Amino acid sequence: MRRRRRNPRKRPSPISSTCSKSRRTRSASVGRHHRNKPAETLRQFCRHNAVVPSANNPGQRMRTNRTSMILMLIALTALTEPALQAQEHRATRLGNPATRFAAPLQTPDDLRKLLGSELFRNDVEFVVRECGFQGEMPAFHRAVAEAYILPLRIPVGTRLPAMSSRRKGKPVLLRDVLWAGKKPIDAYEFRFSSLGEQYRVVAPRACANFWVEHLGAVPRASLTLRCESPSSVTLGRPANVCLVLSNTGDAAEPRATVSLAIPATMSLTAATGGGEESAGDVVWEIHNLGPGESRQLCATFDASQTGMQALAATVRGGRGITAQTRCEMLVAGVPAVLLEVVDLDDPVAVGGTATYEITVVNQGSAALTRLTLNCRLADGQSFLAGSGTTAVLAQDREG
Question: What are the residue ranges of helices labelled H in the chain?
Fold first, then answer.
């Protein structure tokens, strides 16, 4: 009888094959379970699940190496997954029915109908809010109905802040999208503002994957008013007052009204810049005051009495912007002395008595203070007596 020669190469039994398969399946499932764990947790997992190879069991060493390699790949995947998620989206083609937000747009009215549709209202508002819109939704819907829609071409290589899309029919927002197609994107855009902020809506025509961009604060005019006047003016002389209106904002002021109250003891004689008297005020109408521009507005008054005069002015812009200013001016008088001497007895005999009446009159607009009257007698005369509002003192010529 002939004996069969056995094959020295041992084939794996079905049991060992099944075990290997189950072991691989278990490793894969473990990898999925621990994929989102931190790197430290994965390192601990690798240490705790490592098998110490035996020198007498080469198969165990091989299985240990395979298990370690799988665990290292799982750890590497977990560590690199956040970096992959942080990368930009690359768009090379638009219009896929499975991912486009809506049907292609042919006219600006198509965009109005889409964004204003009750059918898409929840999806549209979801995208608008996801884009970071902080304004009022009624302002967005007003802009959809009334804003002027313009065509727009987006060059290849443009980095877009966001783009809406669909995933399994539900709206999603992709952020940081790089347009890497072969041609520029044909799109529509319109702009609007809400709560003092500006926004732009952009919608590619091929897919209607619209998004909303924040453009910053709405440009505003900012008005300041400054009063310039001399600290004092002489009564009877013209009193000049100038106002300097400035726009320190970043937008033009279409119309501003400046009013300067006329004090009760002063009257207007002239005004520059088209100023006119109205209801006790000097009023100027200023049109189209651009950013950084200033206008000087002057008025001339006559004062009827001395004293401190307060001059108050206000400005009101077309959008309700107001500013105020104030300055003070002292109206001072000037004294004017009239001196009159009359001899009451004329002629007077030698050795007789002569009486002189001296009158001091202030013809000016300011009081005379610390007034001293000195009278010098002629040779051959001598002082006998005198009277007045104050005591009269005689002093010899030597003194």
Answer: 14-33, 39-49, 58-86, 108-115, 121-130, 137-146
